[in-house]
Amino acid sequence: MSDTMGTTSLRTVSKGLTIMGFRLANINGRSALVSGDHYTDLATHSSGALGPDPMEALARPDMLAELAALLDDSSVTGLLADVVLGPPVPRPQKVFGIGLNYQDHADEGGVEPPASPLVFTKFPSCLVGPTADVEIRSGGVDYEGELVVVIGQGGRGSAHRFLRENELQRLRQDVRDGERKQIGAAEGQ
Fold first, then answer.
1. Last residue in a domain, options 55, 86, 117
2. Is the pLDDT of residue 19 over 70?
């Protein structure tokens, strides 16, 4: 799951389902492990066992977890505050959007929710880092928060265990709270 800092930070989410125990960032196109406010260049930290490409790093979660466990003050490359973060998954094979998938969203649009959520594709270029400018090329925009779920090896059938209804409800509330804060901040400018 991509957090507000633009890093991939996954954890144990339910009994028996352990997901990555590290935070991976894309810093100027290079993969880095994150610890607190610091980052460590992955290619350097792995002595070249992993290259700088974030996609290559994502294919080796076992090695990333081992390398993350070895992080210490001597391995720090720099401060996160001093760099520009890109999307943690810069070149996904597929990007799907899910629309009208909960009642509040349908209510906002004044429509009845469909029997099944709308599924649509998006271009991989829709992904940007957390501080990147997003150009609006039309007369209107639907402000919404997005959740990105990366399903890797052994992922078939596992998404339903991760995305349980109570977790989705908590996420929806977090997104709505964040939207209210953003709209309030924009109106105060």
1. 86
2. no
